[in-house]
Every structure is written in C-alpha cells, then in structure tokens.
Amino acid sequence: MTETGPSRIQSEKRAAILGAALEVFAAEGFRGATLDRIAGEAGLSKPNLLYYFPSKEEVHEALLSGLLDLWLAPLRRIDPDGEPMAELLGYVRRKLALSRSHPRESRLFANEILQGAPRIGPTLSGALRDLVEEKAQAIAAWAETGAIAPVDPRHLIISVWALTQHYADFDVQVRAVLGRDDPLDGAEAHLEMLFERLLAPRA
Prior knowledge:
Layout lengths: L7 H25 L2 H8 L3 H7 L3 H21 L7 H18 L1 H12 L6 H24 L8 H17 L1 H8 L8 H13 L4
Helix pairs in contact: 1-2, 1-4, 1-6, 5-8, 5-10, 6-8
C-alpha cells in the first residue's frame, strides 16, 4: 500500500482474490470454502492472499459488503414521486436483471441467509429494514390514493425478492423444468403480467 492508496497491482490482486472467493463461496458455502482453495483459484500463494486478507472471515465480509450495495441499489431507485406502476415494475425488472448478471452473488447471499446471517445480521435488521420501511411507506401511500390496488407493501417487496432471486438461487432446477439454455427466457414478461394484475387499481 502507498500513502495515497493501493497500487494498481495491489488493486488487481485484491480484485482477483475477491473474484476467486466469490466462485468458491458460491459453490461451497462459507464452511466448505478454504483459503487454500481461494488462493489457488486466484492464482496466488496462500501467504500472498493473507497479505490482503488476514482471514477467511475478512474475505467473506468484503464480498458481502460489496454485494449488499449492489443488491439494495434497485430498491433505492424506487421514486416516491414517480408513476407507481412504472416504479414497481421497474423494480421487478431490475431485480430480475441482477439474477441474470450476478447469479453467483445471489447464491452467496442466499448461503449467508440460510446459515442464519451470522455476518450480515445487523445490516439486515438495520440498514435493510430501514430502507424497506422507507419504500413501504411510499407504496402504502400509492395504495391509499388508489394509484395501485391495496397491498401489504412489505410482503410485496419480499415477493419481488422471492420471484426474481429464485432464478439465480435455483438455476439448476429452473433449467431442468424449463428445458432451456436461458432460464430467464420469458421470465420478465411473466413477472410483469403477474405484478401488473396484482397491482392494477380496483375499478
């Protein structure tokens, strides 16, 4: 490290370690992953890896920290002043796009949750809960004005998570059932129809 920050080579090695760790953690989970495996995947020696990350826990926490920023970005973009249906369907599309572009990150997050969220529990009950509450208030206001159908806003957000992240977290199952190379083929149109019907204002 220099006084002004990491050098280009240091940044590249750190990125290589995190990329390798993502592959290993997504495949093996936290317990099954080892620093030896991560180092080998990154093309580095274990001592070299330990120079950047002193423990497996620190590698994992660095990945999860970056992942949470990525994962919450689509929810943050919901604009209370926007057109309600467009805002909510846009959120569905953005979450589905993440399942397509970042399936390993989705599985890493799912593995952490299945283990009881030992490393990101405080974030889930803190920053995530606060963000959900903020957006839930906007959704509730839309429902109260009749712009969308009456709906429990928190369960609506959870439903979006479930119906979009499933395509990444259960990719093998989806491919087997659909018999397609692209498991998301047709998914966007289906989910838009589903949520549009659910949220359409009552006559």
